Amino acid sequence: MSLQQVAAQAASHPLSGTVAEWLWLLPVLPLAGFVANGLLSLNSARLGPSDPNAPHHHPHSLAAADAPAISHAEQAGAVGDDHHAVKRHRWAGLTSIIGPGVLVASFLLALSIFFAMKGAPMETPFIQRYFSWMPAGDLQIDAAFQLDQLSMVMVLVITGVGALIHIFSIGYMRDDPGYPRYFAYLNLFVFFMLVLVLGANYPVLFVGWEGVGLCSYLLIGYWFSEKANADAGKKAFIVNRIGDFGFLVAMFLLFANLGVLDFAGVNAKATELQAGGALVTAICLFMFLGCAGKSAQIPLYVWLPDAMAGPTPVSALIHAATMVTAGVYLIARSAVLFSLSPVASLTVAIVGAVTAIFAATIGLKQWDIKKVLAYSTVSQLGYMFIGVGVGAYVSGVFHLVTHAFFKALLFLGAGSVIHAMHVAYHRTHSHDDAQDMRNMGGLRRFMPVTWVLMWIATLAISGIPPFAGFFSKDEILGATFSRAQGSTLASATWLGIPGSSLLYAIYALGLISALLTAIYMTRLMLYTFHGPNRTGATEEGYLHEAPWVMTGPLVVLGVLSLIGGWLNIPKIANDLLGLGPRESLHHWLEPVVGGATARIAAGGHHPSVTLEEILIGAAIVIAVAGIAIAFARLKPARLVPKREARQEEGFERVLLNKYFVDEGYDRAIVNPTYAISRNVLWKGVDNGLIDGFLVNGSAAVARGFGWVGSRLQTGSTGIYAWAVVVGVIAVLGAFTLR
Amino acid sequence: MLAESLAISAVLFTIGVVGVLVHRNAIIIFMCVELMLTAVNLTFVAFSRFYGATGQVFVVFVMTVSAAEAAVGLAIIIAIFRHRQTVNLSDINLMKG
Fold it and tell me: How many contacts, defined by CB atoms under 8 Å, are there between A and B?
């Protein structure tokens, strides 16, 4: 396509000439922040934990010596046993401006583009082509960004929630010696995340996809001087590679069969594929393998709980609000493909439902506050996949947005708690676990702001109206229920099971998960903030609320968790309460996923108002019941600190150990891989075949010839003479007898 | 006439070859080599009688070379004897591989 054509096409779009032309600046701003912070971090790398020559008084714990207050918040018990003056990075001040600054600027730009979009209704995405990236025969891939309603939602979440988490990080990470490095990684992450959601074709999306994986790896292993953290980073990276393999295969299949990889082309040509055929199902399932890796679904969810080794704001941004939702985004983005394959869609929903309940049960019995939230994230991601699986793409994205609000709030609140606990333990030279809920308790007296905000988030995630989570979760469950009564999914079969009964089962699993969610979240609140304080008598005096730079973002997220549901308030609630514009997100995303949703819902009918009211009532009852059960059954007063706690028994132990899945993977995959690598590949192929046979073997052959040759050299003149005579006679004889 | 000459030189040459092969004493082997050269010279002379004088030129060449060879060879043998008190070739195998 010539430049004039591109220009002509762009000029005809409603967004051309508006602020949307500055689209490219959205990711470039964080990239600039990455470069600036990266340079600052290189400038005095001697302060970072990366430099083994840095002067340390405590060789057993590199970072602890330099950053007593915060850097070790996650590394319980590793705190140095002496006080040191806080050695901030020399550029900490500048980093505090650049790091969050670029995000705020990016968010403001995103907001203005959003308002420009609202003012110019559009049916087709606004595409900007920058240069031809991979022109290879039939394969024409441009480096191009596209802006449509779905991208806009994601961009607003990423830059908005991202900016808040960046600001929170100032308070949380300022005293860490690697502060500019932290912000460099965080900025780089936002850059790649924006590339992911703005890419106009699968390869560009894949660049962002891999980039966020890289940043996730870097930030999980941010305190890499502890081996466990570095290992957690590697685990995340390796597990994600399995998923990426699926994504790549899906892309190859798409190109081989459709010949295009840009979203516009795929959406236009997808209907050429046979609906429900094996090919489109294969493409979708391979793509979903990628989503399962990135979004931590069974069987690839194991990396996410380990990823909590990173700093808590990282868990909030990457491993709760944005990156792990990339899989949901990808399915919503490929809605046309998934709507053509009921089997793949049902698979997505089933995996989501099983993951939701599986992770929720594990969350019931975890003691580490961040682990509870990690399993909660896995569970909520399962909900999102139920949503996009049953073809309720808007509901899935809606839950993605509200989840970003309340889960970021929960993680940052947990960060605030850990921060307070850590400071207290540090002041008293205690080596107790600052993240274990058995060591907390009664924190509401010391941190009232965090307490209130965490309760808001808890009510939101539990699905209590009018908090954000209620609307999104209810919408997913409602969509699942109504799909069971007539849709392409209900009439399809999955491994011989009729789709309709599967959808009812998914709905039931979703309800039970909602109950469990309410229980484990209330448990977290009760053990952390209520009951007597178990921190220790001397530590109590040091517990206090976090500074405003940390509580400020919490308050904003709290407000969002409170009103986030208004984004897409259902018609029925609107009729009851008469609040605001209804189903705005639904209308907003209509041009992107409307066709796909209609294809899946074909043959169904909207549930009656009575049924809808019953479903909503059931969801509320379930949520309230969960909270009530937790209040009735759990007695924070009876809890003892971690070091006095008894060993768990029976099923509790199974839950605490996460169903021994990690151990199972170790036995089934990791150890056999090690064994094969060691015994077959290393000792067999490398040592035996290559070193033994090929390298040493050829040497031995040469040496053998040499040995024979040296035997011939007897040094005895007589034998040489004989050889000459025999040779002469032989040659003469040969000539004579010829 | 030619046939008889060639037969004599063949017999001489064979005696030389066998002497080289069977003897161990360096001096005797040396003399056997000289015998082989002499047999060849006889062949040259016999042929030159029937086919022109070129063969005689070669005879002079061979005698010159064999004289030089005798000088060098005997010098080596003497050097070996001084060094090892023997000229028995069975005992001289330093070049063994």
Answer: 33
* Cβ contacts of B90 on chain A, cutoff 8 Å: 716, 718
Task: Report pLDDT digits (tens) over A217-258.
Answer: 999 999 998 899 999 999 999 999 999 999 999 999 999 998
Domain range for B56 is: 2-90
pLDDT value at residue A135: 87
Chain segment A646-676, per-residue pLDDT in tens? 777 778 788 888 888 888 888 888 899 999 9
Per-residue pLDDT of A595-621, as tens digits, reads: 888 888 887 777 777 888 888 899 999
| Residue A669 falls inside a structural domain | yes
Count of domains observed in chain B:
1
Q: Give the three-state DSSP class for A136.
A: strand
Percent of chain B with pLDDT over 70: 99
The confidence band for A19, taking pLDDT boundaries of 50, 70 and 90, is: confident
Would you say residue A697 lies in a domain? Answer: yes
| pLDDT(A411) > 70 | yes
Residue A709 counted as domain residue? yes
- The residues pairing with A129 across neighbouring beta strands, listed in sequence order, are A144
Domain carrying residue A717? 662-737
- pLDDT of A66 > 50? The answer is no
Query: Do residue B20 and residue A721 have CB atoms under 8 angstroms apart?
Result: yes
Residue A220 CB-density burial (10 A; 0-12 exposed, 13-18 middle, 19+ buried): buried
Contacts of B96 in chain A (CB under 8 A): 713-716
Whole-number Å distance between alpha carbons of B67 and B60: 11
Q: Does B89 touch chain A (CB under 8 A)?
A: yes
Q: Which residue of A has its CA nearest to B33?
A: A721
* Residue B83 covered by a domain: yes
- B97 assigned to some structural domain: no
Tokens of A473: 């979760």
Query: Any residues with CB less than 8 A from the CB of A629 and at least 6 apart, and which?
Result: A515, A518, A519
A151/A155 Cα distance (integer angstroms): 6
How many angstroms separate the Cα of A401 from the Cα of each of A160, A381, A404, A508, A582?
Answer: 11, 11, 5, 24, 17
A149-173 and A584-601 are packed helices; what angle lies between their axes, rounded to 10 degrees? 120
CA Rg value for chain A: 31
Contact assignment for B89 to A715 by CB distance below 8 Å: no
Min Cα–Cα distance to chain B from A719, Å = 8
Tell me what percent of the residues of chain A surpass a pLDDT of 70.
91
* Residue B52 belongs to some domain of the structure: yes
Q: Answer whether B84 touches A (CB < 8 Å).
A: no
Mutation target among A707, A716, A722 for the B interface, most CBs of B within 10 A: A716
Position A683 in a domain: yes
Question: What pLDDT score does B39 carry?
Answer: 95
Identify the bridge partners of residue A136 per DSSP, sorted by sequence position.
A139
Domain membership of residue B95 (yes or no) is: no
Give the total number of structural domains in chain A.
1
Assembly ipTM: 0.88
Chain B residues whose beta carbon lies within 8 Å of the beta carbon of residue A721: 20-21
Query: pLDDT, tens digit, for every residue of A348-383?
Result: 999 999 999 999 999 998 999 999 999 999 999 999
